[in-house]
Amino acid sequence: MINNTLSSYTASTPSIDTEFNLADTGHQGIGQLESTLSFSASLPLSISARQSWLVFAAAVFLVSVPVFVEAPIVRSLPTLSLALTAFWLWLSFSLMSRSATYVWGDLLLGFSWSWLAGAIYWGWLRWEPLWHLPVESIGLPFACWCLAKNWGKVGSWFYLGSLLGTVLTDVYFYLADLMPYWRQIMRVDADGAPQILQNALMQVQTPWGQSWAIILALVLSTVGILALGRNQRHWYAFGGAVLSTILVDSLFLLAAIAA
Length: 259
Known about the structure:
Elements: H1 2-76, H2 78-96, H3 102-125, H4 132-136, H5 140-148, H6 153-175, H7 179-185, H8 193-204, H9 207-228, H10 233-258
Helix pairs in contact: 1-2, 1-3, 1-10, 2-3, 3-6, 5-6, 6-9, 6-10, 9-10
């Protein structure tokens, strides 16, 4: 009888060990599952952050395009520059038709309005600076409509950032009394441009001109950096457009110094 009892106890012991092993295995499996879920959750965040910075870089590039690419085209072939707006619109809607490239089409849609404004102004109205801001604002109603519909946010905010940079640059031209030089340089040939740029540079280097340059640069920097703190793609597009205004204006200043 005792032997039978011991035999039954011995036979039941492995089942207890098996239960503990299964419990340990279960805990390990849960730990591995939690690690996998944590990694899977962090992966989309890293991809999203990377894409946001790519949007920022693209916004900086697209603000520079009208200045350094469109300007030479529009002076000699204004009609072609204007017609290219249709191509940018077609390309933007084509990219937006696919989810993988939607954000780039969205950004390009906002760029199309900047290109259209540049083609009109620099092609036919560049001799009068008073027309600059009204023409640059040509896409403002459409951008506001898109934001009201919660559609095309990346491109709309890019356009608004680019427009803000243009507004503050023009405000500086008014404050520093640079508008006469603007009119002059649009009417002279290449040989007379360096002297006008030198005269304009002397105006910028006055205490009044330097003070306002610092103030407006601080405003642009603050707005751009605050936008990047929002951690959303459309704000990165806005911040990139605003901050790149400082870069473009600095390049113009260097060109005036080198003239």
